[in-house]
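Thanks for the sequence, V.! I ran Protein kinase domain-containing protein right away. Repeating your input here for the record:
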Amino acid sequence: MIEYLCKLYSLMEEEICMVEEEVLFVDEKPEDVHHDQCTTKTRERFQTLSTASTSPVWLRQGLASVVIGSPFSFGALISKIKEKLKFQTKMYKSDPCTYMSNRCHESLKVISTQDRLLPFINAQLEDSMQFLRQMREKIPKLIEGDQQLYQQLLEDTRSNTDIQNFYEPLNTRLESLKRDVAVYTVKEIRRSDFTTRELQWTEESIIGTGSFSTVYSGVLSRKEEPAVKVALKVYADLLTSDNVWHFIGEEQALRQLRHPSLVRFYGTNLQNVSEGTKVMIVLELCMCSLKSHIMSHPVNAPARQPDEVARRKVLVWAQQILDALRYVHEQGFVHQGLKLENVLLTQDETVKLTGIGVGKFETEAESSPRYLAPEVLEGRIYDSKAEMYSFGLLLWEMWYGRIAFGTAIISRTEHLNGLRKGIRPSHIEGTNRPWKIWQEVMEFCWSGERRDRLTARQSWEFWKQLQKERDSESLKVRPKPPPKPSVSKAKPKIAPKPVKKK
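Predicted structure:
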């Protein structure tokens, strides 16, 4: 600590020696201590102190006091060390707490005098005082500037239209510059997570096509790591200022969000070609979408399937979707494109959400208005509750194995008018009705009023309750096997032969 204070505050070594002498040799006369010898050997004594760092605190303190304060020869020093340590050991063992308390008080008495502390404190506070003086000089100027700005606002006679016409071009120009900087950052500064050689795929291995990208199946091969089958999402257009925010938003969500029910993100690959930069995102490879799995086997839907095992499978899928939504919303993200097409299924039939951070409600309003909440279609402010509306429709589709509102393309205006009238998907006659909790969660989620909808966490809690009910119900209705007939291993008794009378 002494060495640290010396470096931090540049304390004079002579002053340190004087403190040690006054505290540790209070029973000796001042003329017995030679300050010149103390000063010339201070550094060596600091090293001696450091070598005893593993000793008990009372031993280190006693050794330090003797080494720092002793003016005698080495032989006399050894003798004095033994005498001093013997005395201090006795005092320490008799009452350690009292001994250390007394030593601390003696040290504080020496260093807490005004002539020692005041100059040091003043020197340390000088920088802070200088900063405060500068702030004091600037405050009147800041007040004057605020007053001038306030007066200018009062005298500004421009209308809101004039102000908007003046600042909108500036805002547009700034937005354009931000996009250009983002493109330059991605192209020139960003590094790919993988090289092109580490990714193997062909143009024929297409597994899906969307508005902005095409997905291929491929293989990720890295040195000293096993090869992994992956999905390669290749942007349809080269990186430009028009799609750079799309890429940055998607990558940010993929890198930040980690959950068992979200598609795993491996990294990105940026390929510089002659025309520009091609963007590729490497993701977990899944078997298919939940939409294709359910719609291709509608007879297996819970509404048409009396088998409890098949129903419970759909129940687990819905619970996994809710768990993922709960996590995504708590992390501050909104999917903005929740539909069965963006829910994938792995080989072991585990649900994986994809497309988070990619879609925008505004874009979906033109392509898939059937899954959007009324406030989104009306252009009003929305939040995660709008996504829970979409989840309510997903529950209906998962139960009945049908597309909500039919397969016909619905115009945005007609669909919104129907929602305002309270039109929602209804029960299909001749099929099984949903479980009570399933029905309630579904209807609460697709409510026209945002405040009436459940959050993802609330729905998830209801789903756990439904899971418990189904578990207990399956135990009640489980048929008991008939008891096996007991087989006796004892030999059958032989009836005694009747005795013939003579």
